[in-house]
Structures are given as structure tokens and as C-alpha cells.
Write a structure and sequence with these properties.
Layout: E1 3-10, E2 13-25, E3 31-35, E4 41-42, H1 49-58, H2 66-72, H3 80-92, H4 110-118, H5 131-144, H6 157-170, E5 179-180, E6 186-187, E7 190-191, H7 192-204, H8 210-220, H9 222-225, H10 231-238, E8 243-247, E9 251-255, E10 261-266, H11 274-284, H12 291-296, E11 298-303, E12 306-313
Helix pairs in contact: 1-5, 1-6, 1-8, 2-3, 2-5, 2-8, 3-5, 7-8
């Protein structure tokens, strides 16, 4: 059963709650907090991206710099820096946007989207938030001489290797039913407790390993991994050394340099629950005394442009 995790209080009244499941682990991987169905597999959506990137590095993907590695792990907003990096990666490995099998989309960033529309342009695959990952997958296929017209197929050697890596990093024993993510790629279901442990493995891995390389690139380039004003960027700016990654449908996971980690799923998928809950978890772990983190734990509810309420973690949770 899921539990109440986040509440919306307006004008002193509890307007609604967001239910879900949550796990917090200490540096040894022992459970500090477990609420709801943390052992039931879920589809982590884009929270799986760092694990998928580890798989590509193990297979021989060789990004030219840490920015290129970050864009391979990104759920970017289609801002100009993001698009340029994806296009450069495609060009460097002999591909074009036509080779991407992710769906066409408009930029997620409001200003970038307005600029595209004002110029009379429409959706493109390169604007899609997963295009960096898809470009890196094409590069990985090229390194092995694998087919690129079907790289999204679950039976493709790339996707089989990705699934094996996800199972390795999460400590799962066997693959369960694969899903298809919004970008068209197979996705491996993972219990929240295993997802949190995988993030701990990323940040505590030895230097020079694929796991550590991915973690360090996320920490170095939080804007490239997310985008202006996004939850991951705001959290990583407030908490030095944090690695975190949001996923669709209210999923979030992260880890601190000492290996403390967390993962949660909001049942209704509402994004407004993610930031205050993650900030509250990080404060509970003693992550930072930065005033920005305290501010992120309480998000405003506006009425007529004036703050009339708050979105915050349910007090009883912590």
C-alpha cells in the first residue's frame, strides 16, 4: 500500500495529498526509511538513464568530454546548448538527426519552445528530451558495427546489454517484463530499494570506472542533464556532491557522496510533489545547511499572484 507523502495546504486547510512509496538508505545500504511498496518493481522511466549510460560506456561509447557524457544521460529541455551538443555528438559519429528513433517533439523549456514556434519551425527528434541518450546509443552501435535501424528493439544486442547492466547495478537477480518508455526504448522494471542502491553504487564507485564517470559528469553539468529551472538542477546547485535524476510519473532517485541514497514514486505522477519531498529527504540526511535547500522543501501555492498555501512533505513522514 502506498502512503501519504506530500500535502498541499491552502489558506490553512489541507487541500489534497500526494500518495506514493519512498525509501531512504544509509551509506551502508541499510534502510533508514521505508514507506509503501519499495520492493515492488516499477518502471523508473528517465531515472534509469544514468544506468543506461554506464552500460554504453562499458560497451565502448567514448564521449569526447564530460559535457557529451552528461547529454547522453540527460532529460534535457531542448535549449540551445542541449540541442547543439546532441547535434555535435551525432555529427562526430557519422549520424544525422534522421537516424534518431526517438519521437519528434518541441523543446520542453518554455522560452526555447516559443523561439522555435516564432521561427515557424515545428517538432524535431533532436528537441525530444531523450535525444542525447539516443545519439549515444547510435555511437555505441557504431563502435560495435551493430545495426542502427532497429537499436530500440529489445532483442537488439545493445538493449540486451543495457538490461544486463541495469540488473547488475540494481542487484536484481533476473529480468522481469520489459516496458516501453516514452522515447520508444525498452525499460527494465526495478524496485525502489534497488534503484536507490544503484545510485549509491554510482557515487561511491572508484575513479576511472564507468559508474564514477557518469556520476561525476552529472555533478559537473547539472544544467545539461536537466535544464533551466528544473528540479535536478536546483537540488544539485543547493547540495554539493549530490547526484540525482528525475523520471516521468513522479519518480526521483539520488545519492550523496557518502553513499546515502533515496528513491520514491508519487502515485499520481504529479511533478509538484517531487521537489519538496526530495529537499526534505536531503535535509533529513543532513546534506546541506544551504538556505536554498530549506527553501526548496516548501513550494508556494499561489492565488492571484500571492502565496496562499504550501506544498510540503507530510510532517509525519520525517
Amino acid at each position: 500500500m502506498s502512503v501519504e507523502l506530500v500535502e498541499v495546504v491552502r489558506s490553512g486547510f489541507r487541500e489534497c495529498v500526494h500518495r506514493g512509496s519512498l525509501v531512504v538508505l544509509d551509506p551502508r545500504g541499510e534502510v533508514l526509511v521505508s514507506l509503501g511498496e519499495v520492493h515492488t518493481p516499477i518502471y523508473p522511466r528517465s531515472t534509469n538513464k544514468p544506468l543506461q549510460t554506464v552500460a554504453m560506456l562499458r560497451l565502448g561509447f567514448t564521449p569526447r568530454d564530460t559535457a557529451e557524457l552528461a547529454i547522453a544521460t540527460a532529460s534535457h529541455e531542448g535549449e540551445s546548448d542541449h540541442v547543439e551538443l546532441v547535434e555535435d555528438l551525432l555529427d562526430a559519429t557519422g549520424f544525422t538527426e534522421r537516424d534518431l528513433l526517438c519521437p519528434a517533439d518541441l523543446p520542453g523549456n518554455e522560452l526555447a519552445r516559443a523561439e522555435v514556434l516564432a521561427a515557424g519551425r515545428g517538432p524535431r527528434p533532436v528537441y525530444m528530451n531523450c535525444s542525447g541518450k539516443h545519439a549515444a546509443m547510435l555511437a555505441t552501435c557504431a563502435a560495435h558495427g551493430w545495426s542502427t535501424v532497429d537499436y530500440t528493439d529489445a532483442a537488439h544486442p545493445l538493449q540486451r546489454a543495457v538490461a544486463e547492466t541495469v540488473l547488475d547495478l540494481t542487484g536484481d537477480e533476473e529480468e522481469t517484463d520489459l516496458g516501453i518508455d516514452g522515447c520508444g526504448l525498452p525499460i527494465v522494471p526495478v524496485p525502489l530499494v534497488n534503484l536507490a542502491r544503484a545510485y549509491s553504487r554510482l557515487v561511491t564507485a572508484a575513479e576511472g570506472t564507468p559508474e564514477r564517470a557518469v556520476a561525476d559528469s552529472i555533478r559537473e553539468h547539472p544544467y545539461l542533464v536537466s535544464g533551466a529551472g528544473k528540479d535536478d538542477l536546483r537540488l544539485m546547485e543547493a547540495v554539493p556532491g549530490l547526484v540525482c535524476k528525475a523520471g516521468a510519473d513522479g519518480i526521483h532517485a539520488g545519492a550523496l557522496p557518502d553513499g546515502s541514497s533515496f528513491a520514491f514514486k508519487i502515485d499520481d505522477g504529479h511533478e509538484r510533489a517531487r521537489l519538496p519531498l526530495s529537499a526534505t529527504i536531503l535535509r533529513r540526511l543532513g546534506a546541506s545547511s544551504d538556505e536554498r535547500l530549506a527553501g526548496l522543501a516548501s513550494q508556494p501555492v499561489l492565488g492571484g499572484g500571492v502565496r496562499v498555501g504550501t506544498v510540503r512533505a507530510v510532517p509525519e513522514v520525517f
